[in-house]
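for the record, two folds in this file. i put them one after another cuz i was lazy. first one right below, seq on top, C-alpha cells after. the second one comes after a little note so u can tell where it starts
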Amino acid sequence: MSARFYIDARLASGDTLSLPATAARHVQVLRMQPGDSITLFNGHDNVGEGEFEAAVTRMGRSDVDVTIGHYTATEREAKRAVHLAVGMPANDRMDWLVEKATELGVASIQPLMTERSVLRLSGERAEKKLAHWRAIAIAACEQCGRNRVPVIHGATSLNQWLKSTAQQTSTSQRLLLSLQDGTQPVAQAVNITDSTTLLFLSGPEGGLSPTEEAAALASGFKPVTLGPRVLRAETAPLACLAFLSLKDHS
C-alpha cells in the first residue's frame, strides 16, 4: 500500500494540487521523487468514499505538487455505525483511545467530563485538545486504510450530553458499560445480525458515579458488561469495538 494522505478538499482525476504542509513534509521525509505514487482520500467527495491514486510532479524545498489520477471505490467501513461517548481518561490515554478506536472503525467519539474525570477542558485548551484529537484520527485513517474520518466532538459534561441526547430522535441502541451485578453481557445485548447503530457510554478512571449511572439509565441506556475483570477506562470501549469488528468479519 502506498503512502496515504487525507486531503480536506474536493478531489478529481486530472487535477493538480499542492499537498498540505503536513503531507508535504511526510513526502519529503520519505525521500519521494517526481513520478512516485501516493494515495489521497477525503472521505466526503461527491464521487464516494474511495481513494485516488496520485503522482508526485514537483518537489520543492517545502512544498510538493501532485497530479490526481485514477479513483477506486474502496469500502473499508464497519457494517454498522458504532459511536463512543467516553469519560476522558487522563494523560495520553485519551490520545491512545482515539487512535485505536479509529483503527477499529468507530463512527464518532464524544469526550465527556464526569464527576470522577481527572481531565477538565474549557475555552482555548478545549479547542486545542479537539484539534489534536482530530489530527490523531486523521493520522490513524491514513495508516489503517480507512477513507472516512470519524467525527470527534468537542468535550462536554455528561449531564449536558445526556440532556441533549434525550431530545434527539434516534433508533440507536444505547448501551452503558457497567460493573453492576446481574448486568447482561455485551455479546447477548447486541444482535450481531442487526445493523442498528450502537452508542456505547463508558466512564473514566473509577467509572461513572451511582448518580451518573442512574441518570444514564433514565435516559434510555441499557447496562452491559464485558466480564468480571475491571478494564481500564481506555480499554473497555476498545474491547467493544474489537468484539464487533471480529463478529462483522466472522
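(here's the note) second protein begins now
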Amino acid sequence: MMYAVIDLETTGGTPANEAITEIAIYKYDGQQIVDQFISLVNPQRPIDWYVQKLTGINNKMLRRAPKFYEVAKRVVEITEGCVIVAHNAAFDYRVLHKEFDRLGYNFERPKLCTVKLSKELIPGLPSYSLGKLCKSLHIPLSDRHRAFSDALATVTLFEMILNKQRNLSDRIEMPKTQKNKNKINKDIVKIIDELPAKKGVFYLYNKYDQLISVNYTRNIKQKINKIFLANNPKSLDLQKQFSKIDFELIKGNLISRVISWHYKHQYNPVFSPCTKKKYSEEHLFLNNNMLLIDKGHYTGENSIIYIENQKVIGYGFFELAWQKQDLDTLKKRLTPVEDHPYLHKIIQDYLDKYQIEEIIRLDQN
C-alpha cells in the first residue's frame, strides 16, 4: 500500500476562510520515502498574527510563493492511489478539501490519523500532540510547526505504528463518495503546464477544429486549470470534447472583452454561447465617431476599436508609429465586427469604470 504523509500550515481564522501557507507531502511505500513535494503557498489573504508567531511564516515570505492553483496538479498526482496520513488527519484533510473546492475539484482520498493510531497502538503517553509525542518517542523534530519538519516527523511516527500493526486496512477512513472522481488526462496536464499565467483570450477546440469555448481572463493558466479540475457535468463534457487550445496574450482588458464577444457572437461556441444575441437595450456612446486606443499584445503595440456613426466597425492592433490621420488605411486593416447593442454595453460599461490609454474623438464640431 502507498501512503501520502501530509502536513499543512494555514493562515488561521475561521474554518471557512483559512487557507494553506505551506504544504509538505512525503510519498511513503511503508519502508521508505519514494517521492516528496514541499512548498510555501501564497494564500492570497493575510496570516493571523498568532499563526505568524507560531510558525515563523509571515506575509512577506509568501508574496512570491505559488498560489494553490499552481501546485494543485502536483498535489493530485503525488496523492493519487495513496492513503492520506496526517497527525490530526481530519484538520489537514478538511483544509485540503476546501482548497480544491475553491477550484471546483472534488478531492477525495482515504485517510489515516496518526493521533488515533498512536492512542490505540502506543497507549499510556502523557500527551499525543505531535511535539510531545516526538519527545516521548525520541523522534527528531527540528522545526516545529513547519510543514516539512512536522510531516517528516509524522513519517517516522507512522513507521513506528506500522512496525506494531502492519495491517491497518480496517482503520482506514474511506471518502464519503467516490462518484465522479475527476482524473486529469496526462496530455491535458502537459498542456496546462505550458500555459502562461498571463491575461488574454483563450480558444478551446474539439477534434474537428470547431471552436467550443472562448473567453478572456486575467490569468490563462489559472482559468484553464480551473476548467479542467472542475467536476460538474458541463466541465466534464467539455473535457471529453476538448482537443487543443489556442490563446492570445493581450495587455489591454477592453480589447480582450471585445474579441471574446466577437467570437462568441460569430461562432456561438457550445460551452460559452452568446446568450445576449437578442439583447436590444440601446446604449449610445458619448461621441458618434471615435477611436478607443489601449494596450495591445506587447509593449510598443496599441489595440484600436473603431466607432463610426455610433456603430462599432471593427478592431485591430497597430504599432505605436501608425498614422492616426490615415483613417481609410486604418479601416482596411481592422477585423470587422457585427455591431450589436450588447457590444455597446460591454464597451460603455468598461469606459464608465476604467481608463484606457486614449480616446480620439473624430466628430467635427
